[in-house]
Amino acid sequence: MLLKNAKLYKQDGKWDILITNGNIQQISQTTESKAEDEEVIDLDGKIVLPPYVEPHIHLDYVLTAGTPRWNQSGSVFEGIEIWSERKQIVKETKEDIKKRAMEAVRMQMKHGIQHVRTHVDVSDPTLKGLEALLEVKEEVKKYMDIQIVALPQEGLYSKPEGESLLRKALEMGADVVGGIPHYEPTREDGVRSVICALDLAEEFGKLVDIHCDEIDDDQSRYLEVLAAEALKRNMGHLVTASHTTAMASYSNAYTYKLFQTLKKAGVHFIALPKANLHLQGRFDSHPVRRGLTRVKEMLNEGINVCFGLDSIKDPWYPLGDGNLMPVVDVGLHACHMTDHDNIVKALDLVTTNGARTLDIMEKYGVKEGNQANLIVIDSDSEYEAIRTQAPVLYSIRNGEIIVKTEPARTEMAL
Ligand code: 17E
Ligand code: FE2
Fold this sequence. Notes:
By secondary structure, the protein is an alpha/beta fold. Helix content is about 35%, strand content about 20%. The protein has helices spanning about 75-90, 95-110, 130-140, 160-170, 185-205, 220-230, 250-265, 275-280, 295-300, 325-335, 340-345, 350-355, 380-385, and strands spanning about 1-10, 15-20, 25-30, 40, 45-50, 50-55, 115-120, 145-150, 175-180, 205-210, 240-245, 270, 305, 375, 390-395, 400-405.
């Protein structure tokens, strides 16, 4: 396959991308198609990027909002209560969970995502959510790479079997150790849960991704524990802090100190702008806090931050269709990143920065010699791609077109 006249993301000029045997053989400005029957697609200057990365979603929760009830307060904690009730009331089979997850994977695929990190609730002693997602991971691997985080959603120390379930989940094949320290009964339990996650990650050779300080409480400071411990163990590059919304409420003086540890530790951050604008500030009267982590400030300090969606119609968040473009749009607004420089590099937040977080950089990127995994979006400039929320025209994986979308056409009198 030959992709002609591509604009490579953040590069000038028009490029031809020659794909053979599923790999990017050559990227040059003068490629002639070699074989007679070569499929040639003229991209007419449209942007080619590596596939989008969804670093944080809960595929076992998708499409469950409203059963058994809707989240009235809109808070994180009511979401956890509803999910816990649902597990008692709605007796789903593994197949039911797979069906919902598969629907969500197809939404993500349509929007150019080929790498996903999903959390899965391992508070449920049957671990059927994990079984379901392990099967989904295997069944969709031709189209999507999925990493699975074992998340003790109801807290590691709220039940005696918490730790053994987490350990079992890792033995069964979860890729990443999760945690939720701000939900543990006491501060000490929260600290213990972070240490436990790092211990298990070292023991099993896994990554770490903690739901960390997803609360509007300036006293919620598990991030410093996670980062300092990761630094001591020299494993910061394998560790991710998700949400970290309490950082929006920390004083600037404390944040200054915290950033010194974060920079040394090299931990990754996932901000979930749509989900957390919805979930946070729910206990405030005006002025209502936005409750988003300090994305711009961390990026300016060289700390890796990416964006994710978190939810598709679940007890925490009622909307979402798998598309990361609106997440980028909302995130830029909410984080005061609507300056020109941040707009033109915004797609980093859902490509390279996500890939760094998932620790997949070795194979990621539109480069000669890499597997031909890429997307084409309907825009010829980085700036316009963000302004117009450019849709994905092609998603190509291993040299094959796995998604093709015709742009919508409108006729107008003017
Ligand atoms: N679980 C949690 O603790 N927080 C969230 N935002 C979601 C699930 C979606
Ligand atoms: Fe989450």
